[in-house]
């Protein structure tokens, strides 16, 4: 058995085949005190329906890359294209889930999810129907009228996932979404997210510090090297789209990829 491992970018050219095309992207932050080259020569091409996990040492630019895809940070070099159109300002066609759920404390679960519809002027009836479906999908139907403080951390994060998916975005961007949760809740949410992805054609970019989480969830894992961050290795995850949690973690294919990523993260090229 081999790991499909590449040091070169997964693909180049023919960007029309890809939902997301990141080409030669560099990002430099200039502040009064200093200049930081956060990213350099980042190339990444993602097809519709892929789940790409991004791992790498702290400060290598993972969040910066996600923000650039969302149009919240504009590259100083290179280009990002989403659905064939260049990302030059904040995009409406992405969903973003952050480490903290950032819910409005005075709004109930449904009100927090529907905020997305209000901000984007979506048709209220259609958004409300989709909200019901998402509540069902994330086992939150019975909590639609609950306020955030009445929910556990895991439930709050599921609300923020529903909010990010309400407008049916082309790409779901997740920045350490489960990093603040306890291990068991994190595991449950991994299973739910895996099921959601396996049953839909959702395209996901996930930033995580957890190698098992990265491999369990992804169809591809990209490993970034220390700042200025660039992609140093990519791994295809040769596991079925729908995966049970424990059997997957015991699968030799899982171990092989996770072991190799850990090894590289511990090496001077990839590690903290
Ligand atoms: N708005 C900003 N202004 C100046 N520098 C920034 C800004 N945002 C990020 N940086 C710098 O860019 C680099 C990459 O930061 P980023 O948060 O993207 O890394 P990361 O890989 O997500 O880190 P972590 O894993 O610790 O969350 C860091 O050196 C950071 O200080």
From TrEMBL:
InterPro entries reported in the protein's UniProt record: AAA+_ATPase, ABC_transporter-like_ATP-bd, ABC_transporter-like_CS, ABC_transporter_ATP-bind, P-loop_NTPase
GO molecular function: ATP binding; ATP hydrolysis activity
The keyword Nucleotide-binding is annotated on this UniProt entry: yes
Domain named ABC transporter: residues: 20-251
UniProt keyword terms in alphabetical order: ATP-binding, Nucleotide-binding, Transport
Protein name: ABC transporter ATP-binding protein
Higher taxonomy: Bacteria, Bacillati, Actinomycetota, Actinomycetes, Micrococcales
């Amino acid at each position: 058995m081999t790991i499909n491992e590449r040091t070169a970018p997964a693909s180049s050219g023919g960007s029309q085949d890809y939902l997301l095309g990141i080409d030669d992207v560099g990002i430099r932050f200039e502040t009064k005190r200093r200049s930081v080259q956060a990213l350099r020569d980042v190339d990444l091409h993602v097809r519709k329906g892929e789940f790409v996990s991004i791992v790498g040492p702290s400060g290598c630019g993972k969040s910066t890359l996600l923000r650039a895809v969302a149009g919240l940070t504009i590259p100083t070099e290179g280009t990002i294209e989403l659905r064939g159109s260049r990302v030059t300002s904040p995009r409406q066609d992405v969903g973003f889930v952050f480490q903290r759920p950032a819910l409005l404390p005075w709004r109930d679960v449904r009100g927090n999810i529907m905020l997305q519809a209000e901000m984007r002027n979506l048709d209220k009836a259609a958004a409300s129907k989709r909200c019901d479906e998402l509540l069902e999908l994330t086992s939150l139907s019975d909590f639609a009228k609950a306020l955030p403080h009445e929910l556990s951390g895991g439930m709050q994060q599921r609300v923020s996932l529903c909010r990010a998916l309400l407008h049916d975005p082309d790409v779901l961007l997740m920045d350490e979404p489960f990093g603040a949760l306890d291990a068991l809740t994190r595991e449950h949410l991994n299973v739910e997210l895996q099921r959601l992805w396996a049953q839909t054609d959702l395209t996901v970019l996930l930033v995580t510090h957890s190698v098992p989480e990265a491999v369990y969830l992804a169809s591809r894992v990209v490993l970034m090297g220390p700042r200025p961050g660039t992609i140093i290795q990519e791994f295809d995850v040769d596991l079925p789209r729908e995966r049970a949690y424990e059997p997957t973690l015991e699968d030799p294919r899982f171990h092989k990829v996770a072991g190799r990523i850990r090894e590289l993260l511990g090496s001077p090229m990839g590690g903290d």
